[in-house]
Amino acid sequence: MPVDTPLTDERIRTESWIARLIKRPELGSIAGLILVTVFFLITANSAMFTLSGIMNFLSPAAQLGILAIGAAMLMIGGEFDLSIGSMVAFAGMIFGALVVNLGLPLIVAIPLTLAFAALVGVVNGQLTIRTGLPSFIVTLAFLFILRGLTLVGLKALTGGSTQLRGLREATAQDMLAPLFSGEAFKGLFAALARSGVIDTFPNGTPKVPGIPVEILWFVGLALAATWVLLRTPAGNWIFASGGDANAAANAGVPVRKVKTALFMFTAVCAALLAIMQVMDAGSTDARRGFQKEFEGIIAAVIGGCLLTGGYGSAIGAFFGSIIFGMVVIGLTYTQIDQDWFQVFLGGMLLLAVVFNNVIRKRVTGER
Amino acid sequence: MMQDSKFHHGEAATTAPIIRLEEIRKHFGNVIALNGVTFDVRPGECHCLLGDNGAGKSTFIKTMSGVLKPTEGRILIDGQETTFSGPRDAQDAGIATVFQDLAMIPLMSVTRNFFMGREPTKGRGLFKRFDHRRANEICVEEMRKMGINLRGPDQAVGTLSGGERQTVAIARAVHFGARVLILDEPTSALGVRQTSNVLSTIDRVRRQGVGVVFISHNVRHALAVGDRFTVLNRGQTLGTAVRGQISAAELQDLMAGGQELAELEGSLGGTI
User: Fold this and answer.
1) What are the chain A neighbours of B104 within 8 Å (beta carbons)?
2) Which CATH number fits domain B37-106+177-268: 3.30.9.10, 3.40.50.300, 3.40.50.1000, 2.40.30.40?
3) B129 CA: distance to closest CA in chain A (Å)
4) A115-158, pLDDT tens digit by residue?
5) What is the pLDDT of residues A173-201, one digit of tens each?
6) Structure letter (DSSP) for residue A200
7) Is the ipTM of this complex over 0.85?
8) With 80 as the cut, is the pLDDT of residue B265 above it?
9) Which residue spans within A65-216 are E strands per DSSP?
10) B45 conformational bin, left if phi > 0, alpha if psi -120 to 50, beta if neither
């Protein structure tokens, strides 16, 4: 005897597309990006939105974004990693030592560096899972441990200095170097310059020689992370682990493996950034990545990640990072004192958290 | 109200049980949680397990669902003696449990919850992906069978009522091949209307040949849908009654262990 249930429930209004849009986690960051763009279109020197100006702010945005996407994935999975900033310095030291002190080629040094980072990720993950302590505390410990190890290690490697030099010389001839440093599509940009599409210096070379590789990595990572989150079973497990680890485990989701893998991914993102920064600068420094863990998490939160986990998006973190880069660099194109940046940062974070909270209530229908 | 019900009732005594637990004992150190519990479930019946708080209901469910190992006693599946080394073993044998927390995540869509941990995929290698379209179709269809029309498969579980969530959890268990469905106090936190929805869901599931174990301390809910009733008191089964052979008052007495409640009931004028 099938029970007749009406096909529509008269108590629920049909949703407009706006109402549906508002429930997307990345909406806040897109709105923020539009707001910030309009602000700088009005206040900033027009040079900011030329091709070279855009590359100027996309480059730091991309560097932060590589961290932020990792942080966002981990936050959706319900955990934090405060050690990613220190991880940048630590991985930079490991990479420097492998390349300069041991003279290894990049094809060996890069996988080894990433493996080292992944190992630290496993330690963070296992400690968090096994002790049941908040990851906030466990990774706060590693914020200091990794920073300290980097200082001690660099001094041991260099005989007293906290900087290790000579990376550019060691990697300049390496086949893999163009993947991690410099600009891509140089030929294309040169051709565009010859045909007059993009601006050139008086000697005919383009003002923008190519797209900095970190931007390509940033876009690639954002797309890959979005694919995993929205289109794969693993994505479902990440949302489930962050939403309610106990319920997810009862339903057969391998929560521990998921979380450990996310800690590894976050650490590997930090190491990837370290490799690119170190190769670009030609040296590694113990202060690299200082306070980047906070900026990464803030970009993820601006991108719609809930602090409690289970909700958010990689695309949101992508836009959150661009907002960041735009403000950091954009203020130099205005008359505004650059130190307003930190004020802006805090304000943006507060606004994002309040906004996300409202969104969460709408999604879950809480009143 | 208990004699009559709109539900069909299974022929309790005719078929062989899917799962049978005999003389189950469970000790935690010097605490005896279960002291000889015998219980079985036949296909297409609803067997109610009644007991007051502390009677050992939770321990017994955990034993049946493979979470705990009994200290003594036998578990038989289709007449074959078995041991469960974990919840997975029990699930593989077709024993599904819907715990009170329902294993549902409010922020996730109904479909994502429905297939959590068991996502259908298409493609292979790097392109192996969550088949959203098929998942959505199955989910909407299964929910319709249970009498719930979703606004959309992407509706968040948090927007569903408690009864609807319970139904999603039940539909999920049945879809993934449950032969025995253990429901841990499914009606305890629900209102009148939602309770009746869940009870009719139990009825639908039973009709499909699934054996339902309905755990409750509410005699009215149990009598409304149950075919057999087993009362658990202080870690022991006090016997099993077939529908129509026992009254609500008798069940209530058995659960409470008899006389004290009778005295109480006198002073309260029969209100519990």
Assistant:
1) 244, 247
2) 3.40.50.300
3) 4
4) 999 999 999 999 999 999 999 999 999 999 999 999 999 999 99
5) 888 888 998 898 888 888 888 888 888 88
6) B
7) no
8) no
9) 163-165, 183-184, 211-212
10) beta
Q: CB distance B128–A232 less than 8 Å?
A: yes
Choose among A92, A78, A79: nearest CA to A140.
A79
Residue A282 exposed, middle or buried by CB count within 10 Å (0-12, 13-18, 19+): middle
Instruction: Provide Rg for chain B, Cα atoms.
Output: 19
Q: Work out how many CB contacts closer than 8 A connect A with B.
A: 91
What CATH number is attached to the domain comprising A198? 1.10.3470
Chain B residues within an 8 Å CB radius of A239: 105, 107-108, 112
Is A6 contained in some domain? no
Q: What is the least distance, in Å, from the CA of A317 to any CA of chain B?
A: 19
First-last CA distance in chain A: 36
The size of chain A, in residues, is: 367
Report residue A1 as tokens.
Answer: 């005897």
Give me the number of domains chain A comprises.
1
Assess if residue A132 is contained within a domain: yes
Domain hosting A89: range is 29-360
Mean pLDDT of A66-71: 97
- B207 interfaces chain A, CB cutoff of 8 Å: no
Long-range CB pairs of A114-117, under 8 A, 24+ apart, other chains included:
A114/A268, A114/A271, A114/A272, A116/A91, A116/A271, A117/A87, A117/A90, A117/A91, A117/A264, A117/A267, A117/A268, A117/A270, A117/A271
CA distance B119 to chain A (A): 6
A11's tokens: 């108590």
User: For B70-86, what is each residue's pLDDT tens digit?
Assistant: 999 999 999 899 998 88
Mean residue pLDDT of chain B comes to: 84
CB contact under 8 A, A9 and B107: no
Q: Flag whether A298 is in a domain.
A: yes
Phi-psi category of residue B43: left, alpha or beta, with phi > 0 → left and psi -120 to 50 → alpha: beta
Structural domain contains residue A7: no
Among A236, A257, A357, pick the best mutation site for testing chain B contact (most B Cβ within 10 A): A236
